[in-house]
Amino acid sequence: MRSPTLEFDTANECIKLFISKLLDFGIVLDGITLKVPQILKIHILLAYNFRSGNPFSTYGEMGFTTLQKVVILFLLLSYSKNLSGLLAFLVVYAATSVPLFNPDIVSADLLRNFQWQQC
User: Contacts from 51-60 at CB under 8 Å and sequence distance 24+?
Assistant: First the structure.
């Protein structure tokens, strides 16, 4: 019975596979580093508008945009089989959701400052 290891005819094939895996990892990492700040910024804007009592029609699209970006990040992490990163993101996202929507934890002034920060 053959072992489940990869066999290469030349070192060239091994280098090609290594570069392919490295690029794959880079694309996933780039996707994550681009999406996380966008998700946090939109989430802060959503919480600010909700707590300010603005009509849902003025900020409702942000909720759906946030959901879309969370799903994209979820797919990036799950397809790359990065379950620890996926779990960490979900825990951090849930942990930041509660304080942002609760005025007893995050004051309105602090939330306003978060809103105007550049990501």
Answer: 51/101, 51/103, 51/108, 51/111, 52/108
